[in-house]
């Protein structure tokens, strides 16, 4: 589990695609200070496992689903990536709950600057738009961001100078792709509201929906 607060930008040293899987090696510094084999690292928002490491680089295997469903397949030697270690239980929770399991790849549709902020507009799959709300949270390339505005198939985020300096997002331009992870809590809430209680064999209820809340005076 991650927080979406990027710790450093790493550089891809090698990316070897073999069939549908891949092996990548990334140069890093801060995140390796307390690394162990098997540790989870978020690379551009994708949770990977350290299989080898030394003081200045780590290697991770990418399974076919990761290669197919994320932007990591586009990495090449020299690519810059956002890096974050798994959340420590004794640390501050500065972002939001990020699992590192990418929901979709989103495309940057527009970019503009206003004062010290950079605004990015992104196209998102309509099926995921229901999990994205104005002033809510979203992870783009593993970076926890507040949604500035949300549409039926789009969202806008604003990058403050700190985010511009410490992540790869400030370099994104129209046509570039980013890994999108929606707020995990929204997906859990939808699942709970739509499913019946499996232990209630005599009930015909379809779940905790709006009609049930209205019938009982809660909405």
TrEMBL record:
| Reactions performed catalytically | 2 6,7-dimethyl-8-(1-D-ribityl)lumazine + H(+) = 5-amino-6-(D-ribitylamino)uracil + riboflavin
A Pfam family: Lum_binding
Residue windows of the Lumazine-binding repeats: 1-96, 97-193
Record pathway: Cofactor biosynthesis; riboflavin biosynthesis; riboflavin from 2-hydroxy-3-oxobutyl phosphate and 5-amino-6-(D-ribitylamino)uracil: step 2/2
Domain Lumazine-binding: start-end pairs: 1-96, 97-193
The record's section on Gene3D superfamilies has: 2.40.30.20
Keywords assigned by UniProt, alphabetized: Repeat, Riboflavin biosynthesis, Transferase
Q: Which InterPro entries match?
A: ATP_synth_asu-like_sf (IPR023366), Lumazine-bd (IPR001783), Lumazine-bd_dom (IPR026017), Riboflavin_synthase-like_b-brl (IPR017938)
Keyword Transferase present in the record's keywords: the answer is: yes
The UniProt record lists the keyword Zinc: no
User: EC number(s)?
Assistant: 2.5.1.9
Entry GO MF terms: riboflavin synthase activity
Q: What does this protein do?
A: Catalyzes the dismutation of two molecules of 6,7-dimethyl-8-ribityllumazine, resulting in the formation of riboflavin and 5-amino-6-(D-ribitylamino)uracil.
Q: What is the protein name for this chain? A: Riboflavin synthase
The uppermost taxa in this organism's lineage are:
Bacteria, Bacillati, Bacillota, Bacilli, Bacillales
């Amino acid at each position: 589990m991650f927080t979406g607060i990027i710790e450093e930008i790493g550089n891809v040293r090698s990316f070897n695609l073999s069939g549908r899987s891949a092996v990548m090696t990334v140069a890093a510094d801060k995140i390796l200070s307390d690394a162990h084999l098997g540790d989870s690292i978020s690379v551009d928002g994708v949770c990977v496992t350290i299989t080898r490491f030394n003081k200045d680089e780590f290697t991770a295997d990418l399974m076919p689903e990761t290669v197919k469903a994320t932007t990591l397949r586009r990495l090449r030697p020299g690519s810059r990536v956002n890096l974050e270690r798994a959340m420590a239980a004794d640390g501050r929770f500065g972002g939001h709950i990020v699992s590192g399991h990418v929901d979709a790849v989103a495309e940057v549709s527009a970019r503009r600057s206003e004062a010290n902020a950079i605004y990015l507009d992104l196209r998102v799959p309509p099926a995921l738009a229901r999990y994205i709300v104005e002033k809510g949270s979203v992870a783009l390339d593993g970076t926890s961001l507040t949604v500035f505005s949300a549409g039926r198939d789009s969202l806008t985020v604003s990058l403050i100078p700190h985010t511009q300096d410490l992540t790869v997002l400030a370099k994104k331009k129209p046509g570039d792709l980013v890994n999108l992870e929606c707020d995990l809590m929204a997906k859990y809430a939808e699942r709970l509201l739509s499913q019946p209680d499996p232990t209630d064999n005599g009930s015909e209820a379809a779940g905790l929906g709006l009609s049930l809340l209205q019938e009982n005076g809660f909405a």
